[in-house]
Amino acid sequence: MSKKKKKDGKGRVSYTGKLEITRGGMGFVIVEGLEKDVLIKRDNMGNALNGDEVRVEIPEFGRKFGSRPEGVITEVIKRKQNEFSGRVEVKEHFAFMLPDNEKMPVDIYIPLHLLNGARHGDHVMAKIVEWTGKAKNPVGEVIAILTNEAANEIAMKGILVENGFPLHFPDEVLEEAARYPEGVDSKEAKKRRDMRGTLTITIDPVDAKDFDDAISFKPLKNGMYEVGVHIADVSHYIEPGSELDKEAYMRATSVYLPDRVAPMLPERLSNELCSLRPNEDKYTFSAIFEIDKKGKIKDYWLGKTVIRSVRRFTYEEVQEMIEGADGDHKDVIMVLNEMAQTLRGQRFKKGAINFSSQEVRFKLDDTGKPIGIVVKESKEAHQLIEEFMLLANRTVAEYVSDITFKDKPVPFPYRVHDVPDESKLAIFSTFAARFGYKFDMNSPQSIAKSFNEMLQMVQGKPEQHVLESLGIRTMAKAVYTTENIGHYGLGFADYCHFTSPIRRYPDVLVHRVLEQCLNDEIKPIKQLEQQCRHCSEQERRAMEAERAGNKYKQVEFMQDYIGEEFEAVISGVASFGFWAETVEHKCEGMVSLVDLKDVDDFELLEGEYALVGRYTGIRFAVGAKVTVQVMSANLEKRQIDYHLTGTPEQRGSKKAAAKKRQDSNNPKQTAPRKTKTKTQRKK
């Protein structure tokens, strides 16, 4: 939460918030709890940059009732971005780097001794090393020369740094990671539950390198089964306050771009020491369940373990076995799958919402250029892992939520998801009703039930894509917080992230608190809520980077299809046009209203998710099918422009639109037509 300070005696108050700078150079500080953003003129930004967390001071005269407040930035609390790409200009005694990012308002001053081999005109990556006082320009150092790298390589690196994710780990972090020895220490192993004699496997994507979860399986004499969910024990290596810990917290998440991963942890940990690779002893933190085939849990155990995976499966291998093929440990896979499908069914009966969104994967050549696009499908093999991970996450959260410290709940980083916003839901339910789907809005439970009924009934129908995508948009965003309000989308009263500590920092925090609870040595983590907010913000930035990376590859892919036509579905509308996504490749581009001027004059009806023609009544609504031609694919802007080649109805209506325009401007013709219409209505 942002904090409002007391007046300083001069009639001024200050807030903390996030600075957003427009293309025109004007700034706005978004302050939680304030009705309007705080306006910041260029001269009042100091050395704050786009995305920074700042302290803004508002004079008494700047707080006019009903108008936008105007303020002055007095402090940069946290930088969003410290590295920038751009071109170097070298002078006789100094150099400057001109940033690629248009929201970086100033050039970076580079002393000659910090050019590190860069020459005039080179494309480089530079890091700000100093920016104090009233200096107009920051001082920077060249950390990488990009001139000879491919354009898509430069773009992907640029996307990472634009969103605040550094390209390299500091030397001290790499040195710390390198100190840890290979293998498992025998003394440490004796402190843990030894699971090395139990059948243990991993199931991951075919190109995965960091295996942070494994499943063990053992039949029990009582007819039940012991199923273990084993998670890489990252917290064993990362000590609180260490250089590794500081870096992991700063990043807070790994970032997955189409052609690379920017890991949260150095590869020494993420791909080697912590990765649950086959035929290697590994430290893990585990949730072990006594469970029957129908998913009924009799008992569970939480604690530290040591495991040895005997087989690495891909999702494709497991799916083939589920569909009938033979393979290693097929009998185990089939029992696990039966359990997972039962757990999945139970979740939906208890109120979880069965949303599914389509994701794409790019086929890349050796240079990183996309040569194909594949739509990812969530099959039973994926659901097998998903359900056991959800079970472990929920069980850990339920266990910790029952523990108190000094008569209060133990501070813990829950993963929560609020109920939908009423106004968004009202608009969506009205829209869904047009397709015959009714929503019971009486309670959160009835809303979830209505969603599931709609999602089931809509399968295979033309409106499926639009209702699924718009339904997801009505949902609140899941976040990390110490305030446990439950997870609405999953239907869980208690939930956390426990199962991916290699790529998510909140999971590391969960492991630390859980270990304290199990050992009855609770020492609440300081400023945990602030850490949760930071992790939520970093997650949002990672998603923005991933979207930008996907968009770049879409544009790069479509450059080979300029002039070609594709079937598409309208995916979004705005006052200036609509977005359309090709059915074949899932590539989204814009059809501008300028492109539609010979069809009609259109206005945006937000409540109907549609652009509607003023004269013809033609509708371009989200979910409608259109045909588009690729006009341009601009990599610099990461933008695809489409031309509407239309549908038969739209093509046949252009003359009618022109005639109606002409008639509307002719009073002699307009009056009789209106009279006739009214007469018809009376009849």
Short description:
30% of the residues lie in helices and 28% in strands. It has 16 helices and 33 strands. With 683 residues, it is α+β, with helices and mostly antiparallel strands.
Mean pLDDT reading: 88
Largest sheet: 7 strands, mixed
Distance between the termini: 60 Å
Total domain units: 5
C-alpha geometry: globular
Rg from alpha-carbon coordinates: 28 Å
How helix-rich are the residues, as a percent range? 25-40%
Strand tally is: 33
Poorly predicted tracts of residues: 1-6, 667-683
Structural class: alpha+beta
Strand order of the largest sheet: 11-18-17-14-13-12-19
Strand-residue fraction?
A: 25-35%
The number of helices is 16
